[in-house]
Amino acid sequence: MRSSNGSTEKKKSSHNNIEDQDESENLSAHFNPPPYLEKLLEFRIIFLSGFIDEEKAHELVSRLIALDYQNPKKDILFYIDSYGGEIYSLVAIHDTMKMLRCDVATICIAKAMSAGAILLLAGTKGKRFITPNARVMLHEISSEEDEGRLSDLRDSLKETEKLQGLLEILTKKYTKISATQIKEIFAKNTYMDASTAKKYGVVDHIITHPEIIHQHTNI
Q: In the CATH scheme, what is the code of domain 38-216?
């Protein structure tokens, strides 16, 4: 756009300066976390809340790796309160958890659903916890592809089926649920209370008193 006078250019320059300042503040917030978050990391605590997307996965992966390098002999406490999220973001967090040298204790507060439930049950065996009134939910993943070329839709369906198979393999590996039961559980939204989650081996302990996490972890 051609400027008829200098005022437009000054406004544009001012607008760019504001955008640069906002970006700088966002970067500062990312690399300089608030004091409460620094204190949690000091105690080797990370927290997952809300929807699991790529940005949140990168954030959690970086924290997991940093804590592992900091001290590979001490556990990480991974608190989960999530409705779930993107399958590839789940895979990134899960695979990082499994290549760490330290144990990752998972703790469900309020809810661990869908991808959040898989992360909960993927914690180190003997170190998976749930609060008494929390809920776990497992279900089949869904494909976001609903339009496009037929060949692309077929490929998307194949990929979705492979990913669903991966979730079922992981669930069987980490829990006491049989292959037949897993098919039934994933066929619909299956909710579990704390006692049911423990019965199926999704978690190992219900947090009935404040010291139970400390009794079963190395923190």
A: 3.90.226.10
